[in-house]
Structures are given as C-alpha cells and as structure tokens.
Amino acid sequence: MEFEIDDDVALPKVTRGPPSTSKFRFDDLQVWQSIHIPATATIPKPAKSYGSLVWNATASRTPKHFVVRRVGVEDKRGPGARIFRLADLTPEDIARREANSAALASARAKKLSMLSPTEIQARKDAATLKRAATLDTRKAAAAS
C-alpha cells in the first residue's frame, strides 16, 4: 500500500478530550480568591483528581500561581477541594523553579547514565510488573 502526500489539507479540530475553554475560570480569579469543587460519587477526591489541572494552570499562566487543597465539612460549601489563587510569582521565583527543574533533569540523566543496560532493563521490567499488579488490583476491586 502506498500513501499519497497532500499539501493543501486543513488540519481538523481536535475532537477528543475536554473542551479548550476551562469550566474553571482561572483567569477571572483574583489573588486569594478560590473555587470550590464538591466531592461526588464519581469524583470522591477532587483535590487529587484536579491536581494536574491546577499545576498546568500555574505553568501556563505564569506569573499567576494556583494551588488545590482538600476541604472537609467545615467548608461553607461542603467537603471537596478548593483551588486558590496565591500571590503572583516573582521573576526570582520563576527563575528558581526553572533552575530546580533543570537540575533535577540533569541529576536523573546522570543517574541513568551510570546504570548498565541490564540494570535499566531490570528497572523497566519492575515498573511494568508494578503497573500490572495495580491493574489487577483495580480489576478485582471493580469485580467485587
């Protein structure tokens, strides 16, 4: 089978994943304001479920800084989580984060370069077995 090369085709819109506009209005939050996310049967731990989203919001909206915290029944809107906008990051904070990230990546690369190919494969195999065990546990829990 041969595939034809085309030059004049428009890139289709992404049809999977969440819509590009967030239901959480990060850009509308002022410093020290928060958004409450209730705990539900489908999302019992919203702080854990939305942690990545909040991290990405901070990364994409620098210097704005957001965190998510678990809240209980003492919260005026009930148990769940709150996304807070903290004070903006200073240029020094941003530089420190970037330096720390680069240092961590360098340390990981150095550590991996010191391993033999056999050790690297053993680590990959161990990670695969761990993932398989986790999947088996989840399937057993779902079946019961």
Task: Tell me what you see in this structure.
With 144 residues, the protein is α+β, with helices and mostly antiparallel strands. It folds into 2 domains: 10-89; 115-144. Helices cover 44% and strands 13% of the residues. It has 4 helices and 3 strands. It has helices spanning 46-49, 51-60, 91-113, 117-143; strands at 34-38, 65-71, 80-86. A hairpin with an 8-residue loop joins β2 and β3 (80-86). The chain starts with 33 loop residues before the first strand and ends with a helix. The relative contact order is 0.10. The model has no long low-confidence stretch (mean pLDDT 86).
Low-confidence stretches: none
Going across the biggest sheet, name each strand in turn: 1-3-2
Q: Percent helix among the residues? A: 40-55%
Number of helices: 4
Q: Structural class, please? A: alpha+beta
What is the C-alpha radius of gyration, as a whole number of Å?
A: 22 Å
What is the number of strand segments?
3
Beta percentage is: 5-15%
Shape, please? Answer: extended
Largest sheet features: 3 strands, antiparallel
H-E order: EHHEEHH
Beginning-to-end CA distance, first to last residue: 47 Å
Mean pLDDT: 86
Number of domains: 2
What is the topological layout?
Elements (H helix, E strand, L loop, with lengths): L33 E5 L7 H4 L1 H10 L4 E7 L8 E7 L4 H23 L3 H27 L1
Antiparallel strand pairs: 1-3, 2-3
Name the features:
144 residues; alpha+beta; 3-stranded antiparallel β-sheet; 3 strands; extended
Brief synopsis:
This protein is 44% helix and 13% strand. It is an alpha+beta fold and 144 residues long.
